[in-house]
Amino acid sequence: MITVSINGTMRQFTDPISVAKLIEEMGLTGKRVALERNGEIVPRSSFHMQQLEDGDKLEVVVAVGGG
Description:
mainly beta, 36% strand
């Protein structure tokens, strides 16, 4: 079991999950997303390579356009 904090909310996963899969599960695919993992920015190009680990703390921000 993997437990991570996403924007301050605890979430559990039974199977290993990548950042890319998490973004997909959150319904954010195709959106402009910035993600911080344990205090460090994760480049979008490495989302598919980054596997979440038990205890990770994530901050996910979605850019919203408008005026």
